[in-house]
Amino acid sequence: MPDRPPASPRFRVTPDPEHALPPTRASFIELGVASCFSFLRGASDAADLATTARALGYDAIGIADANSMAGVVRMHIAAKELKLRPVIGCRIETVEGLVFLAYPRDRAAYGQLCQLVSAGRMTTPDGAWQDKGMCQITLSMLAGHAEGVQLILLPPDDLARRFTIGEQTGKVVRLDGAALDAEVCGRLETILPQLTAQLPGLRHVAASYLYRGDDVTRIERLDALARANGLSILATNDVHYHAPERRPLQDVMTAIRHKLPVVRAGHLLHANAERHLKDPAEMERLFARWPHAIKAAREVADACRFSLDELRYEYPQERYPGGMTSQQWLEKLTWDGAKTRYPNGLPESVEETLERELALIGKLELARYFLTIKDIVDFARAQNPPILCQGRGSAANSAVCYCLEITSVDPARHQLLFDRFISEERKEPPDIDVDFEHERREEVIQYIYRKYGRHRAGLCATVIHYRPRMAIREVGKAMGLSEDVTSALARTVWGSWGKEIGERHVAETGMNLNDPHLRRVLRLTEQMIGMPRHLSQHVGGFILTEGALTQTVPIGNGAMPDRSFIEWDKDDIDALGILKIDILALGMLTCIRKALDLIENHHERHLALATVPREDRAVYAMLCKGDSLGVFQVESRAQMNMLPRLRPREFYDLVIQVAIVRPGPIQGDMVHPYLKRRRGAEPVSIPAPAPEHGPPDELSSILARTLGVPIFQEQAMKIALDAARFSSAEANRLRKAMATFRSRGKVDELEEMMVERMVARGYDRDFAQRCFNQIRGFGEYGFPESHAASFAHLVYVSSWLKCHFPAAFACALLNSQPMGFYAPAQIVRDAREHGVEVRPADVNHSLWDCTLEPVSGGVVALRLGLRQVDGLPEHVAARLVAARESGSFDSVGALQDRAGLSPAHLERLASADCFTSLA
User: Fold this and answer.
1) How far apart (Å, rounded) are the C-alpha atoms in residues 319 and 328?
2) Residue ranges covered by each domain of the chain
3) Quick one: which of 56, 7, 27, 63 has its CA closest to 240?
4) Does the domain formed by 837-918 have CATH 3.40.50.2300?
5) Which of 273, 493, 612, 770 has a CA-to-CA distance to 729 between 20 and 30 Å?
6) How far apart are CA 703 and CA 785, in angstroms?
7) Distances in Å between the alpha carbon of 113 and those of 82, 120, 306?
8) Residues 691, 80: Cα–Cα separation, whole Å
């Protein structure tokens, strides 16, 4: 599941970018901007900052988050939509307590800055593994990565503050040639000569109005100090939010960051609400005595010509047999694989599809991407024992992926929409998801790190946003509410995906909504919802580069050992057109692998995913009864209730079964019409346009297989193309809007366009509106046919295992926990109902995992493992099993002595009735 709900409208730029004219050149550019990706510091997102900057008359806007590039892509996108020029930078905070605004002049300098942040996030100053979320940058590290970087020193609020900095390079001298001391301690005026000598890019000292009564004196002092060291002051308002009304939220964020209530935060808070974007004219008025400070800001912005558009993503180069190019090698592997996939001859339609796909892959230069996926899949299958894996999602639309054995779904059989996977018009990279056994995925991840190196491979980030429950708890605590009050408010949010703290629900708790403090807390909570909290690692999205990845985006360490991830999430990667490989974990693959191993060991039958017998009537008969506990994807109560109504009889029925209990078909009111037509209670009719607008069978090829009712994303997209006559650009907007979990607020923009066009062409308005409602549901949780087809394969395999080998299936299911909907006790009960003899966990017979024990005539019994004993650690069970190798236990005392078990662990075993064999 993703971290956040679909994007809120307030996090999007509202003006239509196509009608926004470029602004005129402003006299001043604000460079000291901290966005909400300066976590718990900046109180405004990029859209608010860019929109406000545009309204104030800026033609460009800087961004400099604290030791981070996490927010630069958001600012890049928001600014460009408003015809502003984003000025990309970073706020470097050193371990010595010094703070600099760092703005790269060009691509090379940007790479240096990314490497600097990466170094601070991956290792400590003494070379140890850095903790997740920490970034320690020393002055010497900054000096070593500052070539081409414009540095602006941010002085402390208290100019009397003392610093200690060391002689960093061993060759530092004054401008007059005199040697500098090895260590310098003192105020800013004392250390500034050392800083200017060590940092050639340091040309400015920032000056801000702090509204403390001594601003003129303070800025004059900074101006004199800068001049004395060959520098200039540079005007900035040290922006932390876009408008003054965000100051209370920024105060709350500061209190949360320091783990204090607001009333005790004191001087940690800003003294006023002036840290907002001010228009250039206001900044000129404030700095009328120092016009060179205004000019300096403009000059620095003009000198920073780097844009994220310059990032040219270079995929890793490989050497291929016979000196072949990547495209030639891909084509050879594809045609060889086609012979294996189609041993009775390659169908003409498949051959044409492969030729078209390979030509497009070659034109877009994506061959190396496909070969990397192939290499990873081959690695997994070459392990001993092999790691079960399967491609799914959009990748299943590709015949090339099928022939390379990345996916198991034949696109020729399922008429999948290849253009949804890869399109020349979109000029966007494909997105291939590969699922691996969840217990062994780490082997694959570490293989990628080993092959490409951590400097060239990294997982994507996931931005952890404030959801309503977290927001009300943290905001309420910072605002002084007691824990029982915040808990009561949090309980008013329905489910984990609630999107607001409603006054009606708050009133139901008995609280007084007229209390001004409570209303203030609720208002601040609403502002906090959706704000970034911190970065975490994506579940498996990798990006790979030929050169150092750290020159494209900073990398930091994950909480897990040997994990590292970049600072951009999947949306950022998509926006920049960077290729991503999803290395995902799937518990059912682990379960299937263990079940197949058990069947081979106890029934002497070797099976694989591809060799499980197809279209078994007994399997479909079992599913028609709703007997699907433990079966992949169809084990929920909703799916169990749907199975007897849909009554699947063939594989494609399972594809529909997987997809139909989803928000798209449900919100589009497509479920009941489909079920009625399936059981013959309603005639199958396919909507058609008016005769003058098109042939009556316009949608037949799209809807015939689903009885005239759209079920899948691909169908909804094709209806928009064919029935609403969407252009390629409009279809691309729709595709993006339907992207999983990202579209709320965006899909609605297309409602009138799609519905009215279909009505104008003679389609029934009710049908058109239901189609659009379905698209809206897909936006909340997208489920394409390609995804459903890949999952349906695992539905069938797990159903076949449950039907024909219930003991092995139940054993594998128990050994793969935690996964699925059901507790071990329910799985055991279901196994007994299917005729499996279940034997209890026992100190003389059980291993850690559940096992199968021969009974007679090829029948086996399920022996529960010690893992089912609540509270018994695995290492304790291992000691017990090891001690048993010298002979069975004949008493509890012998067990305690030989295995060294504590009384507490003996009690756990006794409570689980594991001493039966001792009697």
Assistant:
1) 12
2) 466-533, 837-918
3) 63
4) no
5) 770
6) 13
7) 26, 11, 12
8) 44
